[in-house]
Write a structure and sequence with these properties.
Chain lengths: 471, 205
């Protein structure tokens, strides 16, 4: 029912182990995530009504999910009336086919792209390439990743895993000259490289941060101006939009335009935000297409606990505060949606492959929940997915046995007594810690990632009985 | 079944049927006392150049800011008076034809526009393609953008500013400082594809 670049090929633990071996990667991630954390805290701290904004943001998104069929139909009607053509796609393959055909119809063999998670998700660049169409990424970080023939590792800054000198190397390898590895010099090199492409492009492809049902408007939030170039200069504009991006009214933007920039780049406002409603004669693309994509979103919507993941506005604040993300980086998650939000979004949108290991890619510390501008309770969904996901046969059998023993007081007391007798020989190994670090096979599978506590020498009931003489 | 019908059918089957009440306890009015001072502070923080002047000084201030530009592009509705002190060549967009992108991209070209509303709290200029702002490419392709803001156009926060827009279905551009990127080590660097120099003239009085 879904597909594209959201299905991990390797289990998270295996991928994470490999990434952890890269000391340069960890240094780069630590520097970047700590920079952005401090900035975010500073600009969020100066907003007195931040919690009220979060509450409204979460409620607006929940309202959208409960009225989604009506709002989608309303958006289709208003966007069409404004001159756009609206298309629908059930999954990644269908979305790619629709966009490819639209580009073919224009006769163009090159398209310029605004950074977009939806097009990354459906694997659009790969599909266009297979059709002989060059897709040029114009966001600086996406350009770096594309030139390096790599995959994104962060929602907002796909090249977060590279530092400045690595970026200069990638540029030099691809014929972009930057005099130094100073960020302004690197930005200048990207400007020169892309300028001609912007001015000659006939087709632009974008995503959208928001789609307004009452007017048919789309919104793109960006920094560099590459988005404005792609949204303004080409004759044809194709926007790929997930069905959960709908907002009921223009007024709702007053909430999200406050929440999103401060949460994502730690700015009071991002440099550029563009809104367009269908076609405006004499201003911007005169042919406008919108492709509404499901690709696993309706499966996510069907889960009472898990559907809150669809509130996500892709700010990536949760990635930047996550102790697991900070150490393993985005590639370990195997999906274009990494980090805490990816750990709940990817497995829900696609239960395939290694995605079922992703809900375990967390310490459940809750920092992501605190940072989320739309109050997605990520730890709650992680636990829910762990509970409802598949478990090894031996683990299930052990838990069933434990549950049987714990349901009856006499059985439980007897079991504790037996466990204490059984643990006596290993108690001297555990020493004062009271835990065992390594158990023999097959229990070693449990202790490979955690300590095993030993039963207490005395239970509370026994202590009570000796102190008060009553059992 | 068409993709449209199939997606809508799935959404109907999956959506929670419970109506959701949306609280709006956040500030509708920002409450800052000196909006112009706040706007100037925020613009400077983004590395924009800011000049405050009274209406009589506007033409002189604009001419001074544009002194390095050999050509100035202006939307057809920009008041004559804004450019009365400027000595270089003036190209009016749409008189009679739209300027070519190559004209906008030529070296030494600057653009002069007004704006619809400014947001003091975030240092944001909102352009809504009004007569003194023109189409979106004008404030995008030239490397130097001079924007005239009248103090009466300055709103406190985002909600007030959006509510002031006459027609939100016009193409809207929100501009907060010169073009920038945070893509290298998550540090903000000014100057990528949009205008690398943004000058804001705040006309008070």
């Amino acid at each position: 029912m879904s597909g594209g670049n959201i299905v991990a090929r390797r289990p998270f633990p295996a991928a994470a182990r490999e990434e952890l071996g890269d000391a340069q990667l960890r240094a780069n991630l630590r520097k970047a995530t700590h920079t952005i954390r401090d900035k975010r805290l500073r600009v969020v701290g100066e907003v007195p009504d931040w919690e009220a904004l979060r509450q409204s943001g979460a409620a607006i998104k929940d309202d959208v999910l409960s009225r989604l069929p009506e709002l989608l139909e309303e958006f289709e009607a208003t966007a069409t009336a404004a001159g756009a053509t609206v298309h629908w796609a059930r999954d990644a393959a269908e979305a790619c086919a629709v966009v490819t055909q639209l580009v073919r119809d224009t006769g163009a063999t090159e398209v310029v792209k605004v950074k977009s998670m939806a097009t990354q998700e459906i694997g659009l660049n790969e599909a266009l390439e297979a059709a002989g169409i060059d897709a040029v990424e114009t966001d600086l970080a996406e350009l770096i990743v594309q030139l390096a023939d790599d995959t994104p590792s962060h929602i907002l800054v796909p090249a977060i895993h590279y530092n400045r000198s690595q970026i200069r190397e990638i540029f030099t390898r691809n014929g972009l000259s930057a005099l130094t590895d100073d960020p302004p010099a690197l930005a200048e090199a990207a400007r020169r490289h892309l300028r001609a492409k912007f001015l000659s492009a006939r087709v632009g492809i974008s995503g959208a941060n928001f789609a307004v049902a009452e007017s048919g408007a789309l919104v793109v939030v960006e920094s560099e101006g590459n988005g404005r170039m792609c949204l303004t200069l080409p004759e044809t504009l194709i926007s790929v939009v997930g069905i959960e991006k709908i907002l009921p009214t223009f007024r709702d933007l007053e909430v999200f335009l406050q929440l999103l920039p401060r949460s994502s780049t730690g700015e009071r406002m991002n440099p550029y935000t563009s809104l367009w409603t269908g076609v405006t004669p004499g201003d911007g693309p005169q042919t406008v297409h919108i492709v509404l994509v499901d690709n696993g979103r309706t499966e996510t919507l069907a889960d009472d606990v898990g559907r809150q993941a669809l509130r996500c506005i892709r700010c990536s604040a949760c990635l930047n505060v996550c102790p697991v993300y900070e150490r393993v980086g985005g590639h370990a998650y195997g999906s274009v949606y990494p980090g805490p939000i990816g750990a709940i979004l990817s497995p829900q949108m696609s239960g395939e492959g290694a995605n079922r290991t992703l809900p375990y890619a967390s310490t459940l510390c809750g920092a992501c929940y605190d940072a989320c501008p739309v109050q997605i309770n990520i730890p709650e969904v992680l636990v829910h997915l762990r509970q409802t996901g598949p478990h090894p046969v031996a683990e299930r059998a052990a838990m069933r046995a434990l549950s049987w023993a714990m349901r009856d007081r006499r059985r439980y007391t007897a079991a504790l007594r037996a466990a204490r007798r059984g643990a006596a020989p290993v108690r001297w190994v555990a020493g004062r810690r009271g835990t065992v670090r390594h158990l023999p096979w097959p229990l070693s599978r449990w202790t490979s990632t955690r300590d095993a506590p030993l039963p207490a020498k005395q239970t509370f009931r026994e202590w009570w009985a000796t102190e008060r003489g009553q059992a | 079944m068409s993709a449209r019908d199939e997606v809508l059918r799935r959404v109907r089957a999956a959506r929670p049927a419970v109506p959701v009440a949306v609280p709006r306890e956040y500030l509708a009015v920002d409450g800052a006392e000196d909006l112009v001072a706040l706007l100037v502070d925020r613009l400077l923080d983004y590395k924009a150049t800011v000049r405050r002047c009274n209406p009589d000084e506007l033409a002189g201030t604009v001419a001074e800011l544009l002194s390095g530009a050999s050509t100035v592009v202006a939307p057809s509705g920009a008041p004559e008076g804004w450019l009365s002190g400027y000595q270089g060549r003036v190209l009016r967009d749409g008189e009679p034809q739209q300027l070519a992108v190559a004209d906008l991209d030529a070296p030494g070209v600057a653009v002069l526009t007004g704006c619809a509303v400014a947001v003091a709290r975030t240092g944001t200029l909102i352009l809504d393609a009004g007569p003194d702002q023109g189409r979106r490419a004008l404030s995008l392709v030239p490397d130097h953008h001079v924007c005239v803001v009248h103090s009466g156009q300055v709103a406190g926060g985002v909600p007030e500013a959006l509510a002031r827009l006459a027609d939100p279905t016009q193409p809207l551009t929100l501009i907060s400082g010169p073009s920038a990127t945070s893509d290298i080590e998550l540090n903000r660097v000014e100057g990528v594809h949009g205008p690398r120099r943004l000058d804001v003239v705040v006309v008070v009085g």
